Amino acid sequence: MQRRSELTVPRGFSFSAVEANIRKTGRKDLALVVSETEAVMSGVFTTNKVKAAPVKVDMMRIRSGNGRAIVVNSGNANACTGERGTRDALDICGMIASPLGANAKQVYICSTGVIGTPLPMERITQKIPELVGGIGKSSLHDVAEAIMTTDTFPKIAGRILDIDKRKISIAGVCKGAGMIAPHMATMLCFLMTDALIERKALDSALRHAVDDSFNKITVDGDRSTNDTVLVMANGMAGNRIICEGSRTFRTFTLRLSEVTEELSRLIVKDGEGATKLIEIVVKNAKSRGDAEKAAFTIADSLLVKTALYGSDANWGRIMAAIGYSGIVFQEERCDISICNVKVCRKGITTGREIEAAGMLKAREVGIVVDLHIGNASAKVLSCDLTEEYVRINAEYRT
Amino acid sequence: MQRRSELTVPRGFSFSAVEANIRKTGRKDLALVVSETEAVMSGVFTTNKVKAAPVKVDMMRIRSGNGRAIVVNSGNANACTGERGTRDALDICGMIASPLGANAKQVYICSTGVIGTPLPMERITQKIPELVGGIGKSSLHDVAEAIMTTDTFPKIAGRILDIDKRKISIAGVCKGAGMIAPHMATMLCFLMTDALIERKALDSALRHAVDDSFNKITVDGDRSTNDTVLVMANGMAGNRIICEGSRTFRTFTLRLSEVTEELSRLIVKDGEGATKLIEIVVKNAKSRGDAEKAAFTIADSLLVKTALYGSDANWGRIMAAIGYSGIVFQEERCDISICNVKVCRKGITTGREIEAAGMLKAREVGIVVDLHIGNASAKVLSCDLTEEYVRINAEYRT
After folding, report:
1. Which residue from A220, A331, A349 is facing B303, i.e. has the nearest CB?
2. Residue A2 pLDDT more than 70?
3. Which residues, listed in sequence order, are joined to residue B336 by a DSSP beta bridge?
4. Is 50 exceeded by the pLDDT of residue B365?
């Protein structure tokens, strides 16, 4: 099912990454993505009511539908920092804009790291000349590394598609190892493409892609203050413009979705302390909303997550989670399979738990719940809960 | 604030507890609570749609408003066991009723333990003569021990009150170490009193007491299939009957609430793997619903729970949890105190995190969130999340 990543940097995008010692020394933590020409842009932001300063800034910027650059730092989320946080974010955008010959409003900003501490502005501003001067000297991989926090590996994906006999490429990087890593806040994703596409079409393609990927993963159920997905489309591939509803739009959306799905899988695989990637499918629910609610409730149940960590085919915990998820359901109709072994039929045991427990030793495991009550379904990706997760999050700041 | 427990077994109640080897050998796991005379009864049951067989049986029984006995086993929850589960539960009630000269409908049944496995009926029925024959030979403490699963200590509380110059006593036992311990399912609580009280008054006193105690605690956010609270009032104290709305009703309700609050604190203290009891108060919310929602979201956030375990005064995680709780709130009005140290004022740091971190080393810690947006408040009890919780729940069945 999954296509291999085809990574080519889209035309006209260049990168820079420097060490600004924001939180730790000896690592790149300030990066810049620049498009040679003005790009059409779209974005999706956290639904958390507590929004970090950079999120507030980008939400204003994105109304224009275009931009030239994204500046991003790790180590400090610039969240819960009041008016000062917003001023700091705007100042950085301004400092990046002038040497690029761009308007400050065309520079987007993202931050990830500790919540509640103001940005170390002296250290950042001091490094901005080096950052701007270094455009083109770093790779997309460097950007992926510079945005890591508790991530254990950089996350990159790409696809190539043909439109009007032009090769168009889509590339993306992201970070995130808890849906919200500690007060390390978050999930960030930057997508770039050289496709020429209408703003409205880009919006709708992005929303579709995010809904089927980043909106279907959960590590710990916590939603961050900084979650941001930005896409830049600079049109340098020279294709005929992609409009909503067209065949090329569908192809573009499909490939964009593949990139975001691949990136979202990487996030869950890198879930803090996780040893297993868990795919939860809920079938034949009354509505799609019900299917999603049940899948997320199972995915976020500590008892389910710890059982899977212990390779225990404990379907009773799955059933209990469905029971309190609040969906329409009848215990006596429900079937549950773990790693393709049917452990529960019509609400009662099949006696095959030990067989399923053997299968649970794998690195990627699947749970399928068949509610037999409608025809809607949903899929959610999650990971197990381990002692290591507790350690990472209890000891992060100490 | 808290009164010391005053434990006197109410008149007319006797107990029995035997070893039936339901899941482990060498421990009492089958117990019986009997009232000499018919008692007025009331009950509160799990809101999980997946209800264990004994819960379904008790929910039918409780409509009559009276009963003589409660039989309870640990080691097996008799949940997700289909029609056979219900038949087994009814059979056990029948076997207990006859020697007591009672109707089977006057015998209530509760189970706690593994989900999805039928009760070992031979082992249980074989022990019933010994159980019934032993009435009066065991103590309330024995009952509290017999219902333990992952609990590390038995949980008992009591109060004495004067009504019409009669000493009336209320006593209770409970178990529970995860809101739902593993597939160890659950929270059970049995309350007894010799007060003479109307059924309607008892109902309303119980609901009030449960709402302020068991409904305000959370260990892991999972709700069980077996949660049951039962109260028996046999009237043997000979007081004038307590009717709803009277002064004696208010006294009775207050004391009953003290018993349930004490028991619910014991459950959280014994939270699986917990090292800290956490009291979360949310003040000045727009509505009581909002205050509760925010308090529970903070209480169930893995990032908050792990931070507190690590004695990290990470108020950013608390703010983020409020942000995604869905309540009416403004970040810039919000104050947060940890162990009486104000760490956040009007949404930004006060710089006192290190001071608060020192206070967090205590066994009982408090978080106060002042939303400054209304005048409703709520209090929730919780515990921290530790490697030990993961270990208990990953390895429970292996």
Report:
1. A220
2. no
3. B344, B369
4. yes
**Contact flag B320-A385 (C-beta cutoff 8 Å):** no
Residue B181 — very low, low, confident or very high, per pLDDT cuts 50/70/90?
very low
pLDDT at B205 over 80: yes
Q: How many Cα atoms sit within 13 Å of B286 on the Cβ side? A: 9
User: What pLDDT is attached to residue A180?
Assistant: 42
- The whole-chain average pLDDT of chain A stands at 90
Interface test with B, best of A48, A76, A80 (most B CBs within 10 A): A80
Residues 6+ apart with CB under 8 A from B115: A314, A316, A317, A319, A320, B52, B77, B79, B80, B183, B185, B225
Do residue A347 and residue B80 have CB atoms under 8 angstroms apart? yes
- How, if at all, do strands B228-233 and B341-345 pair? unpaired
CB contact at 8 A, A138 and A10:
no
DSSP A5-74: P---PPTTEEEEEE---SSSSSS--EEEEEEEEEEEEEEEE---SS--HHHHHHHHHGGG-EEEEEEEEE
The minimal CB distance from B398 to the residues A116, A312, A348 is found for: A312
Tell me: the pLDDT tens digits for B49-85? Answer: 888 999 999 999 999 999 999 999 999 999 999 999 9
A222, A311, A395: best mutation site toward chain B, by most B Cβ within 10 Å? A222
- Furthest-apart CA atoms within chain B: distance in Å: 69
The pair of three-digit structure tokens given for residue A26, joined into one six-digit string: 């000896």
Residue A350 has pLDDT above 70, yes or no: yes
In sequence order, which ranges of chain B are alpha helices (DSSP H)? Answer: 53-61, 82-100, 121-133, 140-146, 199-211, 247-269, 288-300, 302-309, 315-324, 353-359, 387-395
Would you say residue B177 has pLDDT above 80?
no
A228-233/A348-349 β-pairing: unpaired
Rounded mean pLDDT of B9-21? 97
What percent of chain B clears pLDDT 70, i.e. is strictly above it? 94
Report which of A121, A45, A24 is spatially closest to residue A81, judged by C-alpha positions. A121
**3-state SS assignment for residue A77:** coil
Nearest CA in chain A to B314: A183
Query: B371: closest CA among B275, B292, B313?
Result: B292
Q: To the nearest whole angstrom, how far is the Cα of B76 from the nearest Cα of chain A? A: 12
CA B248 from centroid of its chain's CA atoms: 25
ipTM of the predicted structure?
Answer: 0.78
Distance CA B267, CA B219 (A): 9
CA closest to B354 among chain A residues: A398
Rounded-to-integer distance, Cα B333 and Cα B328, Å = 12
Tokens representing residue A316 in the block: 């009773």
Q: What is the DSSP string of A159-219?
A: EEEEETTEEEEEEEEEE-SSTT-SSS---EEEEEE---B-HHHHHHHHHHHHHTTGGGB-S
Beta-carbon contacts of residue B381 (< 8 Å; ≥ 6 apart): B216, B217, B218, B264, B265, B268, B277, B278, B279, B280, B299
Query: CB–CB of A170/A191 below 8 Å?
Result: yes
Rounded Cα gap, residues B364 and A117, in angstroms: 27
Q: Mean pLDDT over residues B301-323, rounded? A: 91
| Residue B192 pLDDT exceeds 50 | yes
Task: Determine the residue of chain B that is closest to A328 in CA distance.
Answer: B49
Specify which residues A382 forms β-bridges with.
Answer: A278
Angle CA B156–B51–B292, to nearest 5:
65
Say if residue B1's pLDDT is above 50.
Answer: no
